[in-house]
Amino acid sequence: MPIATFSEKIAHTLSTIKYGENPPELYEPIRYMMDLGGKRIRPLLTVLAHHLFEDEVDKVLMPAAGVEVFHNFTLMHDDIMDQAPLRRGQETVHEKWNANTAILSGDVMLVKAYELFFGVQPVHLPVVLKLFSRCAAEVCEGQQLDMNFETRTDVSIPEYLKMITLKTAVLLGFALELGAVLGNASEEDRKNLQEFGIKTGIAFQLRDDLLDVYGNAAEFGKLVGGDILAGKKTFLLLTAMEDANEMHRTELKNWLGKTVADPEEKVKAVTAIYDLLEVKAKTETRINTYFHEALQHLDKVNAPLERKEYLRALALSLMERTS
Amino acid sequence: MPIATFSEKIAHTLSTIKYGENPPELYEPIRYMMDLGGKRIRPLLTVLAHHLFEDEVDKVLMPAAGVEVFHNFTLMHDDIMDQAPLRRGQETVHEKWNANTAILSGDVMLVKAYELFFGVQPVHLPVVLKLFSRCAAEVCEGQQLDMNFETRTDVSIPEYLKMITLKTAVLLGFALELGAVLGNASEEDRKNLQEFGIKTGIAFQLRDDLLDVYGNAAEFGKLVGGDILAGKKTFLLLTAMEDANEMHRTELKNWLGKTVADPEEKVKAVTAIYDLLEVKAKTETRINTYFHEALQHLDKVNAPLERKEYLRALALSLMERTS
């Protein structure tokens, strides 16, 4: 089965979900958010993980959709907290409606995400719900750490890696473990798939940090150096701060604390320090290490090679993206 | 067993819940909110409903606590939306910390509420979770309707009753039904207990509307006429608007739209119109009707009279409160 077939099944499933109708002010923002699209990577991970153990994937489509609805719930609430004006190039929910609507629609979205798991076989229900709830709490912990980092000046690289693990990677891990649990995989296979997801997720986020500075701006659809201008503590910045000598560290701090008339000048200056400290190569090395470790976990999974190839290819596509 | 024993068991259970530790910014507001107290009516309803069918109530304490955690989650998020400075006489979470913290701690609280249901017997898990999720979505719908009403001028009494049913009453209904389900009650007993809760909840909310204007101010711990000053569409106001002649309706609208130097004058003037239209007696009649219907549903439940007496007494105490 070509991977597009799996994606089509997911798209179809998402299009059939009935979130609710009344009051429309509550449910319309959910449909708006879900219709903004996205690559639907998380439900695809669930389906592909399940396909390692069973031919029939239809029965995991609803819980897979639950992962996507949960992901979009986190985006809706994160966008309020980050005061983000845009999401996938469109107005965010709190901009198009208001913050109260985004809070409340998000709340009901989390409830709907839970509901999408209720159709799993009763024997799987307790473990699926426990894994999901734990993951959901961890994603919130990651978002809280991310917010804490905004006002801290002493964030270490291990702390940063912990934050992105919670905020981004554990959900990829859960998406994969979910597919494995529902496919009656062994405990060992489940854990290897989860680790494959977590390591891929970390590599994916580091790649995101890298692309913000070194990506193809046109393809990326964002301002180059947005993180630099926002003073965001990315892997690149933390690496630079750690490796810089006193002079360069002071220079970095000065640039980051400065309100500039010419944003391009600031991005250029900070990037020049990154270049000097070989931050790009160091980040790429770290990405490759995580990606390599991820693949080692996938290798250990007891499933047909040709089926694991779907997951390897998907992970690779996440690493090779230039935007 | 005296009712205080049930309450003590609930208080003890709530005190043992581990919400999480790190980051503290995420979990501290949950403990703060839960420690603000409250009458713990909802978990008591679960325990008392269960006690109708089984002697042993310990096994429902965790899910009963889940209802209370969910209730407090809704309060935390509602307080942001309503920009409320105080909750139970203390600073609200978004005031003490900030709105982002209240959003995110609330989110994780909803997850924790779900987790507290996971320990029920596997045979009950699917139905409990479906009923809870449906109730949770309805509570959000009620809050959205309540917000919609703020900017509407044509809210009807049936619409208002629908709103308070969703926002307040269905959770009391769920709390009772939960106890019944876990006590292996018949479908009929479950539904009668749910209706007992819903009708009691509506009566409770109407009583709340009444006390805002006609309650004992000192005991109530709030400003008398707070709803009038806020221009809130309560049962009293909607009844007055419906029953008033053209002159009084215009007078009411003028007072409600007016920014006054002397709040007491406004409350007195609106209350005078209420008095003229016998709004107090009309509201009391409606409260009594709902309360009577509630008790009829309780009467129909197949359980020992002396055990039902706990629920009757609790409902009565909610009706007789003067604050």
Give the % helix of chain A.
Answer: over 70%
Q: SS-based structural class of chain A?
A: mainly alpha
Annotation field: number of helices of chain A: 16
Estimate the strand proportion of chain A. under 5%
CATH architecture level-2 label of the domain at 186-323 in chain A: Orthogonal Bundle
**CATH topology grouping of the domain at 186-323 in chain A:** Farnesyl Diphosphate Synthase
Q: Specify the overall morphology of chain A.
A: globular
- Poorly predicted spans of chain A: none
Strand order of the largest sheet of chain A: 1-2
CATH top level assignment of the domain at 186-323 in chain A: Mainly Alpha
Q: Characterize the largest beta sheet of chain A: strand count, sense, and whether it forms a barrel.
A: 2 strands, antiparallel
Q: What letter string, H or E per element, gives the SSE order of chain A?
A: HHHHEEHHHHHHHHHHHH
Distance between the termini of chain A: 27 Å
| CATH level-four homologous superfamily name of the domain at 186-323 in chain A | Farnesyl Diphosphate Synthase
Which two protein chains have the largest interface (Cβ within 8 Å of the partner's Cβ), and how many residues from each? A-B, 37 and 37 residues
Q: Output the radius of gyration of chain A.
A: 20 Å
Classify the oligomer.
homodimer
* Number of E-state strands of chain A: 2
The chain-level mean pLDDT of chain A equals: 94
